[in-house]
């Protein structure tokens, strides 16, 4: 049991009797476990018969009938796309979908609508077991979104839409870069990463939208202040083609030459890279966040072109994200990661359930610089706990809880969630959000956004 000495431990909450999938250093799975929280931290975890006798808690919760896991870490999520859920046509090519649909629809949101979208995304994540997220760096109404998120009780790192490359002939490149750096500095000052749940990071849009000076400035800021950067890269062939045409080298070689690769950086998607770029990522300690559901829906060719098994073999830290607004339940992404590569390569040894669950937890924590703090049930870690109800049909019978979490369960089975010791979901309901009011407001706002856009709802079947 992870406790020091035999003195009584004072705790705020004791959860006793759950099967605990700890994701600790030894990956213990405790059949009849107990976990105590105090001051937002885990203060005891181990077999119930040991922990119960040494913890004095103000609140004791019966965990029998539940599997307990750490809170999941969503390594890439667009908080403010949620009102567009399943509005975009499926068949759009990547560039057309981004430039003619996604970006105009983003800009069509009012600040209130962006805040509603972010709260809806946070609600969806919490109710499906995600307690920590890394936003995609595409928030327009930054102040309003931050204010909307803070009362929810989820942990996240956010950034405003940050791109500075001058694509129009009359753009002032220096002014665009200076403006982007100033915006990053202002956001970091307003929401410093000082222990608060919602904090700002110097996140970049990525692709080919950021110049070398902005990449280097953001990287310097992150390194000096112990922060992290994330950016989109190479979901489709267009990024590599642009860099080859304009810089004479592939994108990861360009980033390496700038000196911005490293363990402070997470690159998202990374489907259309070659073996030399895999080596650069591995050597530098750069993290990679894969979004398998987005890849499937967007036709990115991850399983035919992606080198994710090669990245894993070279020690690249792979985390998972949900990407856009269609789904923010992260658990199915682990199932896809565990299954798609077995099929694509004809190798059932690729990405076993244990590796997929690590991507949901400890790998995501590492990609966010929170290793040992989140994604694990261990003494001293943040008290983020998820209880999955094993009395639901999809949980019966239960043999191997790790395989069950990856292959059979999903976020619908989440009963309770704690973030830093605060219970933010109880009996499947948010304790911090008026769900009925939010859902009604989000539906109304979504209809207003698409109506103003003038873009059509394209359905193959008649809607009458």
Write down the overall geometry: globular
**Low-confidence parts:** none
Q: Count the DSSP helices.
A: 17
Beta strand % = 15-25%
CATH architecture of the largest domain: Alpha-Beta Barrel
Could you tell me the mean pLDDT?
96
CATH topology of the largest domain: TIM Barrel
> Structural class, from secondary structure content?
alpha/beta
The biggest sheet amounts to:
9 strands, mixed
Radius of gyration: 22 Å
* CATH homologous superfamily label of the largest domain: Metal-dependent hydrolases
CATH class of the largest domain: Alpha Beta
Could you explain the architecture of this structure?
- The termini are far apart.
- Helix 9 (275-284) links the parallel strand 11 and strand 12.
- Strands 1, 2, 3, 4, 5, 14, 15, 16 and 17 form a 9-stranded mixed sheet that branches. Strands 6-7-8-9 form a 4-stranded parallel sheet.
- It has 17 helices and 17 strands.
- Helices cover 38% and strands 21% of the residues.
